[in-house]
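Dear colleagues,

I hope this message finds you well. In preparation for our joint manuscript, I am sending the Transporter family-2 protein (Fontibacillus solani) sequence together with its predicted structure, so that both groups work from identical material. I would be grateful if you could confirm receipt.
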Amino acid sequence: MRGIIFSILGGTFITLQGVANARISQQLGTWQAATLTQFTGFLMALMILLIVRDGNRQGFKQIKPLYLMSGSFAAIIIYSEVTAIHQIGITFTISALLIAQLCLTFLIDTQGWFDVPKRKMNLPQFIGIAMMVAGVVILKF
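The corresponding C-alpha cells are as follows:
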C-alpha cells in the first residue's frame, strides 16, 4: 500500500512541477527554470537528509558512475517537459510522458537492464500498454 501511495504522490508532484516550470520558463526561460528547479530540489533534499540522517555515506564508492549521473537526467526531463507543455498542453504532455516511462520500464524489466531482475511480460501487460496508448490517442482528439 505504501508503494501505491508514494507512486500517487510522485505522479502528483511531477505534474505540479511541470506546470510550475512552464510558468517559470515564461518569465525566465526554460533552462533557467530547469536550473532553479534543480537548485531548489537540491536544497530540499539536503534539508531532509540533514533531518532524517539515514542511509550509508560509505556506499558512494560502490555506486556505478552511470547511476551517479542520474541527477543530470533531471535537467533534460525538465527542459523536455516544459517545452512539450508549451507545445501540446499539460494533459497530453503528461499522458505521453507516462507512456514513454511505461514503455522504457517495460524494456528494463524484460531485459534486466540496470541490474533489475528480469520479468516475463504476458498478454495482459501488452494489452494494458496498448490501452494506455489508445487512451492518449483518444484524449488528443
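For the figure legend, we might mention the following. The first helix runs from residue 2 to 28. The mean pLDDT is 88.

With kind regards,
E.M.
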